Amino acid sequence: MPGQGGIWQQPNSLWEATAPPPPALPVLQDSVKADLLVIGGGFTGLSAGLHAAEGGRRVVVLEASELGRGASGRNNGQVIPTLTRPDPADLVARFGTEAGERFVGLIRDSASTLFDLVRRLGIDCAAEQTGWVQPVHSPGRIKIAERRARQWGQYGADVELLDRAAVSAMLGTDAYFGGWMNRTGGHINPLALVRGLAAKVVAAGGAVYVNSPALSVERHGDGWVARTPRGVVTADALVLGTNGYAAAVFPDIRTEVVPVLSWQMATAPLGDNVRKTILPGRPAMSDTHGDLRFMRYTADNRLVTGGALLIPVNGAERLKRIVGARLAGMFPALNGVTFDYVWNGRIAMTTDYFPRVHRLGPNGFAWAGCNGRGVALSVSLGRELAHAAIGRDPKDLALPFTAPTPLPFNGLLQRIGPLKILQYRWNDAREI
């Protein structure tokens, strides 16, 4: 449910129970000027604000709610340096050799970009750069792992193709037929990262305002003007980083993605004897199912996983049964496992699984469509959007611009979107 003013009333997450407290941030109640206005206080917006502020620019970030109430603070926290479906060859074919290869490079380095930033700034977000592995759930799908490992390896990614024995040793289950891994991936507490980034934006001289939604944004003269319920921001440049929570003032971007409800859940802490037999190296894992299986550990050894539902009614209790049985089938030691937290948030999906990067006008930039890969991708794209907004030639940046492509009948697609799970499950059961 959407609540008053479009803010979702969602169940509390594990991250809210364990993240360091947020910095004290004000509501915008005045007229202010900036070199860069950033709308959205998630990974994209805060990364853009940080990089611009560190470059000496006056930065204002507007967050419609509290920090991390959108997808950036409510996801699984996996840091994955790939896209969901498109591979490097697909990106080059779509965007051309120069732009496509620059974008491939951004994605290849995106996990290391995030972890290096966390280390440089000393952000307390339970960061573990322990790698990311994608196991394949049927023999035929080993072709997916072979293709992805080969293509990303050709562009210098730290990847490895894994046979069945290697995956079994890495995960502690014989449920898979092989896979591949990228050693630069890992996982973080996403809400802690959001809060830490906001504090660093302020420390660098920027301003972050919460509970300050942009009610209107327009081009005025040589700049941009945004109005909130109590204030006005006038800026030379604009970055929109709202992704699946885009405001109605940007209808073309809001309607080119389909927000999909994603459920996350965390077990009780596992004893060390069990933990050492399941994902013993503590990597992040998400497999080749369309109805995805995914998991990673927290600092206190909870297994954070989740699932999708066709009908969200009584979702938390149903998922405890469904995912609990799924885990027990993969890991007999987890038979009877209990879940202390179940929560959800929205993922912004595109119909072709490609992200969208846009020029909004002179010195105005945006992106949308994380497709479940938003943690690493958002931080890196936020940096690139900031560089474009403060004057670097976008042709030299990893920004494959396209025009917005609003989806006809977007509202209908959102209503019937959960039915896609049926197609995923059908495909998952078939060999390829």
From TrEMBL:
Keywords annotated in UniProt: Oxidoreductase
GO cellular component, one term: cytoplasm
GO terms for MF: oxidoreductase activity
Region Disordered: start-end pairs: 1-20
Domain FAD dependent oxidoreductase, first and last residues per copy: 35-387
Record has Disulfide bond as a keyword: no
Highest taxon above the source species: Bacteria
Coiled coil: none
Protein name: FAD-binding oxidoreductase
Organism for this UniProt entry: Azospirillum lipoferum
